[in-house]
């Protein structure tokens, strides 16, 4: 059973570079046995799910609305929340770590929630924020490979953890 969950967050409207980064992050996480968690819509979320599914991974989308049909076509599990943007807290709360690809206001809220709740957080081509009062681990990455390595380094080893180093 897979027990390592990594949220991949980013803009719902993403450029080609952000989508390519997110797709690769999804692939790498799936190859390491992690479950990809996201907001379930388009852009970075869809690209990460596409990459994960291409490598046999499991993807979970926590949708802002109540209609499962709004979820992207690469979701394994599609959960409508009816919470709008407040679902960002659920995305972060369901994850062991967060990788943010690109930046939007919603992404910034997810990064802030991750830091506040002590989740290791890696930003790839996105917001540059200062970590406050040691709440969480905040790292910047210059490539998808570096982002996934940083998550692997930030998460403690333990039973049931996926092999992020595979």
Description:
- With 166 residues, the protein is an alpha/beta fold.
- It has a single domain, classed as 3-Layer(aba) Sandwich (Rossmann fold), CATH 3.40.50.450.
- The chain has 5 helices and 7 strands.
- It has helices spanning 16-31, 44-54, 87-93, 105-116, 144-154; strands spanning 5-9, 35-38, 59-63, 77-80, 97-101, 121-124, 138-141.
- The protein has a 7-stranded parallel sheet, sandwiched between helices.
- The two termini are 17 Å apart.
- 53% of the residues are buried.
- The model has no long low-confidence stretch (mean pLDDT 88).
Q: What's the short story on this structure?
A:
With 166 residues, this protein is an alpha/beta fold.
Quick tags:
single chain; 166 residues; alpha/beta; Rossmann fold; 7-stranded parallel β-sheet; 5 helices; 7 strands
Helical element count?
A: 5
β-strand number:
7
Tell me the structural class: alpha/beta
What is the overall pLDDT average? Answer: 88
Task: Specify the CATH class.
Answer: Alpha Beta
Fraction in beta strands: 15-25%
Indicate the CATH architecture.
3-Layer(aba) Sandwich
Regions with little confidence, pLDDT below 50 for 5+ residues: none
At the fold tier of CATH, the topology name is: Rossmann fold
Shape: globular
Q: How many structural units, i.e. domains?
A: 1
What is the C-alpha radius of gyration, as a whole number of Å? 14 Å
Distance between the termini: 17 Å
Helix-strand pattern, N to C? Answer: EHEHEEHEHEEH
Main beta-sheet annotation:
7 strands, parallel
Give helix % range. 25-40%
Looking across the biggest beta sheet, what order are the strands in? 4-3-2-1-5-6-7
